[in-house]
Amino acid sequence: MIRVVLPHHLRTLARVGAEVELEVDGEATQRSVLDALEAHYPMLRGTIRDQGTQQRRAFLRFFACQEDLSHESIDFVLPSAVASGEEPLMIVGAIAGG
Hints:
By secondary structure, the chain is α+β, with helices and mostly antiparallel strands. The chain has one domain: Roll (Ubiquitin-like (UB roll)). It is built from three helices and five strands, in the order βαβαββαβ. Strands 2-1-5-3-4 form a five-stranded mixed beta sheet, with helices on one face. A hairpin with a 2-residue loop joins β3 and β4. The longest helix has 11 residues.
């Protein structure tokens, strides 16, 4: 089981708590986790990544094991602690302002 922590606005949209658990087939990559998340919660399609380019939305960041994974490839293999469910993959809303 892979644990994913969602920001408040996505929790509200998906009608879930702060953390969801997902089964992922094959290697745990950003792509496979997001595929599983969108398959289980179709209302999240297009909110985390662009459906055409598969690129992360600009105001979202990905963190795991105290590391910013936002600029890693979508096929980047997530740390083993995330794959085992020991640590969550956190999707965090970025803060912008002036």
